[in-house]
Amino acid sequence: MRTRGWLSVWLGGRVAADIRDQLHRRLQHLPLSFFKIWPVGTVMSRVLDDAGRCEQFLATTLPMLLVNALMIAGILVFLVHTSWRLAICILLPIPPILLAAFFLWGRLKGALDRQASSWSRLSAHLIDSLGGIQIVKAFSQEPREAMNFDRRNDGFSRATVRAERQSFGLFSLIYFLMNLGVFLSGFSRCSRARPKTPIHTRCRCRERSVTSRFST
């Protein structure tokens, strides 16, 4: 377990470092017109944040996905070996889950992209504002800088709320469909179970058998 965790962390850090190195080399050869369109603070934020997300994915998300995939495969093999009807009931929600992910993932991706862009603009403003703090103080532009920061901060907050709302809706629907499969499997097992004979019925049957023996 420790070896796997150390390996995933090392791999994620190494890949993220290589990405930052290649991006930096690429930025050195870009024309000046690119930096007129994209502020330096925005480029710095995107380089660092995107590389950090790649590192988090490789160090945490990818190992978790592999472990869960192997666990699900083992559970499905056991279910098919034990009861193929139960396995079918468990697998029934998979097509609706895939459809929901297909139709809703585009909206979630767009919301996450807008959140990343808002964060890059906020970081760029903070870097430019603190980098030129002497000029800001020399011309008494503190209220103007605070107003611009509040505007970008509010935009990032709204983008975050929309992204989290889309993520919550998608994953709530997926969890509901998964639990629906578990409910269907339990319902199918209960419906196939043979009902037990009530106690009073069994007592009456015994009384009738005893009286029939004495009568004979």
Describe the protein's architecture and organization.
By secondary structure, the protein is mainly alpha-helical. The chain has two domains: 1-27 and 37-82, no CATH class; 84-191. The protein has helices spanning 2-28, 32-37, 40-82, 84-91, 94-131, 133-138, 142-192, 199-215. Helix 4 packs antiparallel against helix 7 (142-192). The N and C termini lie far apart (75 Å). The model has no long low-confidence stretch (mean pLDDT 79).
Strand content: under 5%
Please state the average pLDDT score.
79
Number of E-type strands: 0
Computed CA radius of gyration, to the nearest angstrom: 31 Å
**Counting H and I runs of at least 4 residues, what is the number of helices?**
8
| Class computed from helices, strands and strand pairing | mainly alpha
Give the overall shape.
elongated
How many individual domains?
A: 2
Instruction: Quote the distance from N terminus to C terminus.
Output: 75 Å
Largest sheet: none
Helix-strand topology string: HHHHHHHH
Q: Considering DSSP H and I runs of 4 or more, what fraction of the residues is helical?
A: over 70%
Spans of at least 5 consecutive residues whose pLDDT stays below 50 are none
